[in-house]
Amino acid sequence: MDVRLEAMLQVAGRGHQYLGANISGEAMVKLKLMLSYLTLYLTLEHGVVPALRALHPLATPRAIDGCKLEQLKASLILQNLTISIPTLKEQIRYGKVL
To answer: What pTM does this model have?
Structure first.
């Protein structure tokens, strides 16, 4: 695995862990929350998707879109994080909006 992608996945894992934790404290919590959502989205679109394209150069964009969340989930599971696809999808959608 590419070293940059591995680092991005570790950061995305920390972002997901933060999203699962209930930590209070206003401005800092809001900032960390937004950064966590953004990190998940950016990791998916600029880390996982290019890696999948490199592994499967003949795959269509639709095929890549169909398996990118599973690939991110598998990478997060390697970090001992449990996550469901609907939860991950929701978190990434929110990151895209931000």
So the answer is: 0.72
